[in-house]
Design brief:
This protein has about 400 residues and is an alpha/beta fold. Helices cover about 35% and strands about 15% of the residues. The chain is built from 13 helices and 15 strands. Helix 1 packs across helix 2 and helix 7 crosses helix 11. The longest helix is centred in the N-terminal third of the chain and has 19 residues.
Length: about 400
């Protein structure tokens, strides 16, 4: 029910306006009575859904190598389910305690947003945003008639915004209204780990129970916000598409299927397969990239991250024309990586064109991923210096 209410607030202009102006005003007033603590950092990943991604990498680095007196707090939707963080360092999002922590924290670290669709950041708060992917599909102000993205977005209040390529700089400056001086060209902290391939892969293959002969496909489709049910829940038919694909591949091929975090309902149809493993809630995407032999995706930003591994990437653009019309893309991904719009074509690419796919990936990586390997260290150096200023 809570999720449904959030969707209604987000997509109903009148209800959202009341929420935005009233709550922002109240939090602004409250902020005058809450002192900023120079040693406190608030972390949030994917709106509080998980302990993951670049914020987790920054947190782990600071915990092991940062000053001992740092107060690092994580915000979660379900803090009781996160065992990796001590109870005293967790807070539940959208509670009074959450907003009080946000108001007193010197630094915010997130890969999406912290202000919950509101405007209450204090002038002396450092807002460090790692974002969660390189854009292929059009975003923010680049989407025509985008009613869910307007001046209410908090991106113009960000102090530093990490990117992993020159390609991203113009897009984020324009689409999110971020001043180019705030763009931090260091890469994404979460991707530093992808430069350490061999040992990680072997350890994780054993952890998952895969044999040397198993061929593991990681499938990471993006979400389609225009596909939703009457409750405004975003739906996906990704599982049914993989059922079609796995039938066309030898028995040693297995699929790790990971839906986008915005997807609420995955349609399964009448068939199931023990060769398709749902890893949508698996906490560490990097581990899935390490353990897999290849990636199948559509218009997801994962393709940029995965290119760092230089393993095969296959594009499954089954709804290319519709998606281009409904959402739009910055370039034609079918011109850059091996692509197919049918499961027949996709299976043939997987079985017969892996070496060709690798050559396409290397060229793609050279063009779209320029910075990686030391993002975590450089991000932490910036944060610690900003806390001292």
């Amino acid at each position: 029910m809570k999720a449904v209410i959030k969707k209604i607030v987000k997509y109903n202009p009148f209800i959202y306006a009341v929420y935005y102006y009233l709550c922002s005003f109240l939090l602004k007033i409250l902020g005058y009575f809450v002192r900023t603590h120079s040693d406190t950092i608030l972390f949030m990943s994917f709106g509080g859904r998980s302990f993951s991604d670049s914020p987790k990498e920054i947190y782990n680095y600071l915990e092991s190598r940062g000053p001992n007196d740092l107060q690092m707090i994580w915000a979660f939707e379900r803090p009781e389910e996160v065992e990796s963080v001590d109870d005293s360092h967790k807070v539940k999002v959208d509670t009074l305690k959450f907003f009080l922590v946000a108001l007193r924290a010197k630094v915010w670290v997130t890969n999406s947003s912290i202000e919950r669709g509101l405007k209450f950041k204090k002038r002396n708060t450092i807002y460090f945003n790692t974002w969660h992917g390189t854009p292929l599909k059009k975003m923010g102000l680049d989407i025509k008639n985008n009613q869910s993205f307007s001046s209410r977005a908090d991106f113009n209040r960000i102090d530093k915004f990490t990117v992993q390529s020159d390609y991203e700089c113009d897009i984020f400056s324009r689409a999110f209204g971020i001043d180019s001086s705030k763009i931090f060209k260091v890469g994404l902290p979460r991707n530093d780990d992808l430069t350490h391939q061999v040992q990680r892969r072997e350890d994780l293959r054993r952890k998952f129970g895969f044999t040397d002969s198993d061929q593991i496909i990681l499938y990471t489709p993006t979400f389609r916000e225009f596909e939703h049910n009457s409750l405004h829940q975003i739906t996906s038919n990704s599982y049914m598409l993989m059922i079609e694909l796995v039938k066309k591949l030898p028995a040693n091929y297995k699929i790790l299927s990971r839906s986008h975090y915005e997807v609420d309902v995955i349609k399964h149809g009448d068939e199931i397969s023990d060769r398709i493993i749902d890893v949508s809630r698996y906490p560490d995407l990097n581990e899935l990239m390490h353990v897999s032999d290849m990636l199948v995706s559509d218009y997801s930003s994962v393709i940029f991250d995965y290119s760092i591994t230089e393993k095969p990437i296959f594009i499954f653009s089954f709804d290319f024309e519709d998606y281009q019309k409904m959402r739009g893309m910055y370039f034609n991904i079918e011109d850059n990586l091996l692509s197919s719009r049918t499961t027949d074509g996709l299976s043939q690419n997987i079985l017969n064109s892996q070496e060709s796919a690798i050559q396409h990936v290397k060229k793609f990586k050279k063009q779209y991923v320029n910075f990686f390997g030391t993002a975590t260290k450089q991000s932490c150096q910036y944060i610690l210096k900003a806390m001292q200023d």
